[in-house]
Amino acid sequence: MEIRFEDVIRSAAPGLRVVAIEADVTNPETSDELWSLITRGAEDIHGVMEMADINKRPGIRATRDAYKALGKEPNRYRPSSEALCRRIVKGMELYRINTLVDLINLISFQSGYSIGGFDLDKIEGDTLTLGVGRDGEPFEGIGRGVLNIANMPVYRDNIGGVGTPTSDNERTKLSTETTRLLMCINIYGEEMPIDDVVGLTSSLLERFANATNINVNIYQP
Q: Cα-flanking dihedrals φ and ψ of residue 196, to 5°?
């Protein structure tokens, strides 16, 4: 899978880097071992972070800045990493969904990066293009219904939008039937070093999703 960028993204987020990770995987129900890691990680965030600190995290702040540069209000359509951290700091429980989704959420709130997780077999074509959402463009966010993605960064395949930093699309979502994974780690501003986030991701995928044939590529506008 190749990642390409529209000029509007180059202008709004010139420092963006996208870490694209592909792997053959299994996706069972989340084990107690993985959920324990997630719970402890959330407790660590809850113990040291106040609500006012969340938007100061470099990865989150830079993602919000990209939204503003594109004309999107980040307080109405929060990046997923920010939404996760806010939920944790409020003391709310995280949703337990499946191994890949929960694993991605763990990496997201630890790194500060919004991460797209896609079933590679559901993506049409061999290229994703990162552009900006258009008025009225159809997009069904996972668990959110129709999402207004106008002026929001959006990955598109040959059919249409598959993911934004706020929500991925129902059409390409990860399920327990998923055997081929594509993760897009969106680094609008660096927080966790790239080598560290790649190492963490690969380790968790191998440990909990039986990942093989892991392939990592880094793209930038």
A: -70, -45
Q: What is the pLDDT of residues 116-164, one digit of tens each?
A: 999 999 999 999 999 999 999 999 999 999 999 999 999 999 999 999 9
- Say how many residues make up the chain: 221
101 phi and psi angles, rounded to 5 deg: -65, -45
**DSSP3 helix / strand / coil % (the chain, rounded to 5):** 40, 25, 35
φ, ψ at 99 (rounded to 5°)? -55, -50
CA-to-CA dists, residue 25 to 22, 28, 55, 183, 206, angstroms: 9, 10, 33, 12, 8
pTM of structure: 0.97
Residue 206, token pair as written in the block: 């191998």
Gap between the Cα atoms of 187 and 65, Å rounded? 12
Q: The dihedral of CA 119, 120, 121, 125: what is its sign? A: positive
